[in-house]
Amino acid sequence: MKDLAAALSDIYSGFTNREMWARMAWTDVRMRYKRTVLGPFWATLNMAIFIVALGLVFSHLWKMELADYLPYLCSGFLVWNPITAIITESGSVFVAASGTLLQIKVPYSTFIFATIYRNFIIFLHHAVVYIGVIIVYPVPINMNTLLVIPGLLFIGVNSFWVGSVVGMTCARYRDIQPLLTNILQIVIFLTPIFWTPDMLRGRGRLALVDMNPFFHFIDIVRSPLLGKAPALLSWYVVSGFTVVGLLVAVYCFKKYRKKLCYWL
Amino acid sequence: MSSIKINNLRIEFPIIGSSKSFRREVLLTPIQKFLKRWKGDEGEEKLIKKDTSAAKDDTRELITGGTLSDAKGSEHLSIIAVNDVTFTVNQGDRIGLIGPNGSGKTTLLRAMSGVYEPVSGSIEVEGKISALFTTTLGMDPDDTGYNNIFHMGMYLGMSKEEILARVKEIVSYTDLGIFIDLPVKTYSAGMVARLSFAVATSIVPEILLLDEGLGAGDARFQKKVSDRVDGLVSRSGVLVIASHSAEMIKQMCNKAALLNNGKLLFFGDVEEAFKEYDQLSGTGA
What we know:
The complex is a heterodimer.
Chain A: H1 2-16, H2 18-32, H3 41-62, H4 66-90, H5 93-96, H6 98-101, H7 109-136, H8 148-172, H9 176-190, H10 202-210, H11 213-225, H12 232-263
Chain B: E1 3-14, H1 22-39, H2 45-51, E2 59-61, E3 67-69, E4 78-89, E5 94-98, H3 105-113, E6 120-126, E7 129-132, H4 145-155, H5 160-174, H6 189-200, E8 207-211, H7 219-235, E9 238-242, H8 246-252, E10 255-260, E11 263-268, H9 270-282
């Protein structure tokens, strides 16, 4: 009971410590593009070049109209980026913060919120590319577009449990992070980002689309961005992951928070 | 009213080596077990057992630096850095932690600050803890000295309003002149130290934890430093300081805690604590 209270208080005081995690996130972003002329807009430019180049090649390969393919590719990749970044960066969230964590008492969760916020900032820079794309190749903008907001909120909330669970596991077992990076490199090709779900039928579709959680997480933001409503199944899957994930995160905080400082 | 109650505190550091990472636990252990049975010997683990065979129960004392534990059923070898320590610090107390290297002074301080969680026993703290172990936390070399006052202040637990109220005084104390508006990376090491010192000592602590004294700057600055530390200490409701300087402890503290090998040997009068300490060093223990 005492441990549970301590766990919840860590999460709560970490979240309300907004000034600190917001600052950490901004400092990180600025450090990354220190003394560059474009600053964080390098992220925008990188994404723009990648999307245009890939869009030209793949639309040709799949024999799709660029007007259909480019918004699809860009929106999918836009959502994939923060998802993969948060999973890999969660692996080092506590280890990288050990300099601070072993000097002063800061809620552990502060660093998870900093990671999420940092990736949100980068997401906004990437989103500029998508706005450019839909100016050239318009997509319908309607009530479904508003579903972007709950979609992003879901991803944000899920990032928290990913950060806690992956962060603590990787602090203890340092081999997990390189393993995750490896797996995610493959997942990007196995998930419909470069290709569309209707290219697959039967068992392939079942395995790579319907049973692939990454698809559902991407689609709850991608579909609204394209003016469509995500499938009901996607909402179910994402909600399920949210509830179970948060419970696991609270459990991890309860059980391992006290040990974490000795693993750093 | 600030106080710290420490009850039977024990802090243990597991020695987590690369050999005991994922590889060993997931892959090698079953193979090793199989080989062991097959070969009929104890392999690697024998080394560790042999090393600790001199132990009474399951621990053995080291010459310095806590006690090595290889308790049955525990996952790792671990170092017991603080062992069964109990004492209470009340409002107004100035406690000096003394003892040889590796006796657990720093670990005990970190445990009080909340960085290390007790492995067993408890620490009950009333009041807000300010721990000045590193004064440069939160410093961003690319930002100006002025902005860094806010960054570092935040890590020390000050709110924006609190810092705003003190920023003028901090700036004038640093003597940095126009440098305060330049990026910190253009500063000399001494100037960085002055800035972080000025911020750190501007806090109003309820409970102040210090590891060795605070200091910064050149000879001209030294006098200002000691005055400022005195001011900080007198503002704090409770002070706990770990130091090797007998002079400093005798001057600042009203009580002392003598640690050796993670155990509390003496708690009470400063002079008596040092007598005990001298005896300890005299016998070469």
